[in-house]
Amino acid sequence: MQNIFNKIFGTSQAQKFFSPGRVNLIGEHTDHEGGFVFPCAINLGISALAQPRTDDTIRLYSMNFDEGAFTPFEIKIDEIKSKSEIRTWVNYPLGVVNVLKNHGYKFGGADILYNGNLPGGAGLSSSAAIEVLTGKIFSELYKLNIDGVKMARFSQEAENNFVGMNCGIMDQFAVSMGKKNCAVLLNCSTLEYSYAPLELENFKIVITNSNVPHSLAGSEYNLRRQQCEAALADIKTKKEISCLCDLTPNELDEFSFSIADPVNLKRARHAVSENARAIRASEALKAGDLNLFGRLMNASHVSLRDDYQVTVPELDILASLAWKLDGVVGSRMTGGGFGGCTVSIVENNSVENFKNSIGADYERLTGRKADFYVIETSDGAGKCK
Q: Domains plus CATH for the chain?
C-alpha cells in the first residue's frame, strides 16, 4: 500500500489504520426496533494509510473501487453538502466528515488510501467499516478524542442522513467497539453493552458468501422499517411502549389483534422473537451450551425467511445444506439480507467437509459458486501499533 500511496499522494509519513468488518451471530433486524444484537468484529476489514494536510482539502482513493491513472477523489471540507449528491463509495467517508463538521469538531484536510479484503455486497458491514475507519482517522490525525461509542453514533448518523440508509446502530457499534475473542451483547435502545467470551476451542466460525450481492439502499430494507413502525403505532393504541422490543413474545401475542395489517404483524413477530433469541443465545454461550446456541441460530434463519422475509433462495439453500451436515452446530443468514452470507459454527475437523460438500451442492442447485471464510475475531477500528 505504501508504494501506491506515494504514487498517488507523494512521499509521506502516512499512518496506518485498520477497521474490521463484523458478523452478527444472532439478533438480526432488532437494532432498529430497540432490541438486542450479538455481533463480533472479524479479522477481515479495511486498511488505510492517511496523513494530514495543511489545507482543508480531502483526497480519497480506494484500491478496491478506483481505477485508472491513480487520480483521487478531491473535495474541500466546506464543499461537502448536508446530503450526498454523489453516488459512489466516497459517500461513506464524506458522510462521516460532514457529521464531524456539523457537530462542531475542528480539523483540516487529509490524504487517505483505502484497501479492503471484505467481499463487497456480502453483508459483512463494509460500509460501517469505512465509516468508522474514517472517523477514527480524523480523530487521530487531529486529536479530536472521540470515544468509540460516540464514533459509532456519528457513523450511523452519516449513513442515515448523508448516505440515505435508515440503518440501526449495530454495524457501526460492532466495528467501533469490537474486542478480540469476544462478542458484544448490545442493547440498541440504551447502548448498554457487555462482552461475552467467544473462545471456540474446538469450533470455527465459517462465513459462506452466496455471491448474491445485496444492496440495502436498493432493496426493501426501508420498507421493513416502515412496516415495523406501523405495527408499533398500532400496538401503542392499546399498550404504552417505546419500541417493539419492549415486548416479550407472549405480550406480542396478547396485543397482536391491534395490528391491522397481517404483513406488519409478521414483521413485528420477527423483531420480538429475534430479540428474545438474542438474549437466550448470549446466555447459552456464556453457559457453554453451544448446542442451544446453534438451535437458536437455526430458528433465527427460519424467522428471517418466513416472518421478516429478507432471505433469498440461495441463502435458504446454504442454511438448509448446513443443517444437514454432521459437525455443524448452527447456521443462519447474517446481515441485512436480500443476498450476502450465512454464518455457521462448525467443528474443527468438519470444516473441510463443510466447504467441499456445501460448495458442490450449492453450485449444482444454483449455478453459483460460494466462497468460504474461516474467520477470527478482532478488536475494533483504530490506529495500527
A: 2-197 (3.30.230.10)
Residue 101 CA, chain-centre distance (Å), reads 24
Phi, psi (deg, nearest 5) at residue 337: 100, -165
Query: Residue 124: what residue type?
Result: L
Residue 318 is placed in which grid cell? Answer: 446454504
Q: CA 42, CA 20: separation in Å to the nearest integer?
A: 6
Nearest to 37 by CA among 207, 248, 282: 282
Element (H, E) at 360: helix 351-366
For residue 205, give the C-alpha cell.
466460525
- Is 361 known to be catalytic? no
Contact 121, 215 (CB under 8 A): yes
What the block records as the C-alpha cell of 142 is 487531529
Check: CB of residue 328 under 8 Å from CB of residue 344.
yes
Residues 274 and 278: their CA atoms lie apart, in Å, by: 6
Over residues 46-85, the pLDDT tens digits come to 999 999 999 999 999 999 988 777 999 999 999 998 887 7
All three cell numbers of 53: 494536510
CA 20 – CA 266 distance, rounded (Å): 33
Query: C-alpha cell of 14?
Result: 502516512
Asked whether 100 and 131 are in contact (CB, 8 A), the reply is: no
Q: List, for residues 7-27, the tens digit of each pLDDT value.
A: 999 877 899 999 999 999 999
Q: Are 39 and 23 in contact (CB under 8 A)?
A: yes
* Structure letter (DSSP) for residue 229: H
Pick the catalytic residue: 31, 66, 111, 171?
171
Count CB neighbours of 256 within 10 A: 15
Helix (H, G, I), strand (E, B) or coil at 44: strand
Q: Which three cell numbers stand for residue 163?
A: 448516505
pLDDT digit string (tens) for 339-376?
A: 889 999 999 999 999 999 999 999 999 999 999 999 99
Q: Which three-class secondary structure state does DSSP give residue 75?
A: strand
- pLDDT of 216 > 80? The answer is no
Q: Given CA atoms 27, 220, 63, 359 in this order, what sign does their dihedral have? A: positive
| Whether 115 contacts 57, CB under 8 Å | no
Give dist(CA 202, CA 223) in Å, integer.
Answer: 41
